Amino acid sequence: MENLKVRAKNLSLFYGDNPALKNISLDIPEKRVSALIGPSGCGKSTFLRTLNRMNDLIDNVRIEGEVLVDGINIYDRNIDVVNLRKKIGMIFQKSNPFAKSVYDNIAFGPRINGITKKSQLDEIVEYSLRQAAIWDEVKGRLHNSALSLSGGQQQRLCIARTLAVNPEIILMDEPASALDPISTSKIEELIHELKQKYTIVIVTHNMQQAARTSDYTAFFYIGELVEVNRTEIIFSNPSKKQTEDYISGRFG
Amino acid sequence: MLSRKGRGDKSGDSQVSFAGEKFRFSDWFAERFIKTVAFMSIAFVALIFIFVFREAFPVFRMDVKQKIGSVDLVQEKYGEEEVTPATANPVSGSAIKVSKPSSTLLSNIWMPVSDNPRYGLIPLFFGTLKVTIIALLFAAPIAILAAIYTSMFAKPWIREIIKPAIELLAGFPSVVIGFFALMVLATVFQDIFGYASRLNSFVGGFAMSLAAIPVIYTITEDALTAVPKTYIEASLGLGASRRQTAFNVVLPAAVPGIFAAVILGLGRIFGETMIALMATGNAALTSINPFESVRTLSATIGAEMAEVVFGDTHYSVLFLIGSLLFIFTFALNAISEFYFKNLVIRKYQSKK
User: What is the pLDDT of residue B349?
Assistant: First the structure.
């Protein structure tokens, strides 16, 4: 039996009056990769963003149900969202490094947490970049602009930036959808490495990617969770017709 | 319905020929008309430019004919300074002394209407600079903080109230602001600070900041909201608070735009005439005390142009001041337009 890190219970989300998520209950095991798949607009990204309360930024969103992280409901009134997000990092579809140097991008998180000592920052920067498997590529140009890196490097830089805050869970919203195959495979290798230490939830459009990288796969369709199981079972022997149709490419 | 049907049938049968350009008068006319109007507005600016410079130019060639005949002149005092015999030669009697008025331009005294006129621009420059600095010290922080608040912190409905309210202030006639400063602010500040001259650079500068705040606010707000939303998400996703995100991520990214905003606000203050005329006291002094009266460049033109003798040296000097103002505001706008805007564009478009 897996140790459950995140448990969504009867979670519903509305944009105004339109339901985007309908009564979702999903458990995410610790130190595993869970993939969320489904056609566009099915709510998988929305679900991902409920896990670190990124949807708070959007006006007119209403959420029902609860999300337990380590047994604590993150939608409780006395939850500190800032500290929650330190614990739950997020990687976005489009890499979004700040228009600063590589070093300052990584050091941003530690700095806002009050770490100012140069030696300590240097250590964190190197450690994070090594973990994100990009150290060898950028160690010579730590003080160049992060925007001068290639797209794939920028995305790995963003992962390193997230790791620098020392999160427990990493949410990835289609992290490789804008990248070429070589960069994509690097990100996938990285995901494989990272799951030793972190709980990873990844949204992807690419079913091969879900099959390659994840331990568990959840299939979403129009705001509902259709099926969730071990990845090899979802891809070899799905129990629902809709899942089978989607993974065999009959729709979506 | 019938006629439409008939038309449809017809066009279905006949073939449309696109060989050879068809002359469409309305298109041709509209294009020419718009072009003419556009070029006219450019031409107007150029003509004003030429006119102002042409009127100013004689200052540098003009020899002023000064009558030094009267004996009273020698005894006459201008403030502290006594007219020295070197400039007013009593011996020559009714002789005519010829001196270059342009040589007094860099002097410390603005006294255009006297028997011994001096056109020192230094106190006017000094006054303008002083008022501008005071106004900017008020306007820039207030406007920038207001913009940060509305773009980063305010709830949507609060923003919907504050933003138009501040922008409405831009439409305030400056004479109204000047009147307010003259009647209300001057008294209030005098009660608070207890200074001697009721109208001074502090009152004027404060009133001008009211005129500059909407300019700086609007452009700063635009610059802040133009910062990519992905930056904000990245920062919040890393566990930064809203305040940390606003000051460590959004503000630095918007710095070029904010600079442009401040420079445009500077231009607004620099050229502001009516408030200066009504609230600064209009005494051409060079004191660094903010509670002393000053006379600004634009207020000088506003006050004296109506009284001046056409074609006189004084007249030309006022136009010289006008051309200087023209050059400064032009330079400021050019800097903000080309330099800073390019900087913003380069920053975000370099590599994705």
Answer: 53
Q: Which tokens sit at B294? A: 């000053």
Q: Which residues of A touch B (CB under 8 A)?
A: 52, 54, 57, 59, 82-83, 85-87, 89-90, 92, 94, 96-99, 108-109, 111-113, 145, 147-149, 151, 154, 158, 161-162, 165
Q: Write out B176-243 in H/E/C secondary structure.
A: HHHHHHHHHHHHHHHHHHCCCCCCCHHHHHHHHHHHHHHHHHHHHHHHHHCCCHHHHHHHHHCCCCHH
Residues B266 and B162 in one domain: yes
In Å, what is the CA distance from A152 to each residue of A96, A149, A158, A177, B102?
Answer: 11, 8, 10, 10, 66
Boundary residue ending a domain (B59, B92, B119): B119
Which of A82, A96, A145 is facing B231, going by the closest CB pair?
A96
**B233, A96: Cβ pair inside 8 Å?**
yes
Does the domain at A4-247 match CATH 3.40.50.300? Answer given as: yes
pLDDT per residue as tens digits for the range A61-78? 899 999 999 999 999 988
Instruction: Please judge whether A82 and B240 are an interchain contact, meaning their C-beta atoms are less than 8 angstroms apart.
Output: yes
Q: Provide the domain limits for residue B159.
A: 122-351
Q: What percent of chain B has pLDDT over 90?
A: 45
Query: What chain A residue is nearest to B351 in terms of C-alpha separation?
Result: A147
Q: Tell me, what's the ipTM?
A: 0.88
Decide: B59 and B317 in contact? Cβ < 8 Å.
yes
Q: Are residues B111 and B135 in the same domain?
A: no
Residue whose C-alpha is closest to residue B335's, from B251, B265, B273, B254: B265
Mean pLDDT of A104-128: 93
| Token pair belonging to B17 | 């020929």
Q: Which chain B residues contact residue A92 at CB under 8 A?
A: 230, 233-234, 237
B100, B156: one domain: no
Touching A: B residues 227-286, CB under 8 Å? 228, 230-241, 244, 248-249, 253
Please state the pTM of the whole predicted model: 0.78
Q: Is B97 exposed, middle or buried (0-12, 13-18, 19+ CB in 10 A)?
A: middle
Residue B298 lies in a domain: yes
What whole-number distance in Å separates Cα of residue A172 and Cα of residue A194? 12
Tell me, yes or no, whether B114 and B145 share the same domain: no
Long-range pairs, B82-86, Cβ under 8 A, ≥24: B83/B116
Q: Which 3 state secondary structure label does DSSP give A67?
A: strand
**What tens digit of pLDDT does each residue of A136-171 get?**
999 899 999 998 899 899 999 999 999 999 999 999
